Amino acid sequence: MVDISIEKKLKALWELQEIDSKIDQLNLLKGELPIEVADLEDDIVGYETRTENIKADIKGYETEIANYKTNIKQFQDLQKKYKTQLDSVKNNREFEALNKEIEISGLEVLAAEKRIKETQFHIVAKTESLDKVNEEIESRKKDLEFKKKELKTIVADTESEEKDLNKERVGIEKLVDERLLKAFNRIRKNVKNGIAIASIMRGSCGGCFSKIPPQRQSDIKQHFKVIDCEHCGRILVDNAVTGIVSILETEEEKPKRRVRSLKATK
What we know:
Elements: H1 6-30, H2 33-86, H3 92-173, H4 178-190, E1 197-201, E2 204-205, H5 214-222, E3 227-228, E4 235-237, H6 239-242, H7 247-265
Parallel strand pairs: 1-4
Antiparallel strand pairs: 1-2, 3-4
């Protein structure tokens, strides 16, 4: 890279800041939409996972009911078998034993039928939950579709401008060495408003408004090195870099110019 003066580097950084601020404004137009879209997509994935789990539970309950029905059939067959055997018993002991088995089989049938009813109740509850989750999914999908369209419209309106700004930014970046560029980007991330480079305003930092000592102001105006604010860490520049002269500073200069004019007249 060709050696570039500190003043030109600072001017390049100031131009980068102006471009980045414009890009920030374009992103503000999108607002929270990108985050809202991402959140809705996550919600839908979560709900769809829940529906799969509920469906798996219902399937499990249906399998349990099928098993209970199989058991009922087996016990009913045993009951028929034992009742048939009652006709050929030879003594009371065999008769009582068969009656006991018939009774036990009957109890097993009743228990299985009770479990089927309980399981069917669980299926009804799960089905109701599934319906509610599906309603939530449909609601989220409608919101997502609306917000995606809204975001797409904003992106379409700003895409060309943002593309031009990014292209311009790449060109200006070449005027700044990598170390200084990294520092600039780091400061932008660390400050709330994204302003990494601030001008001197009435002897104060234009970023945090802290007073700047006169000697430090003089050093900034000399452009011998890059100087940052001792309070907020922003890179400080004078109006020779920004090309901005505030109204207040102009007003302050009026008495000085009047004195110089009177001296010249004398």
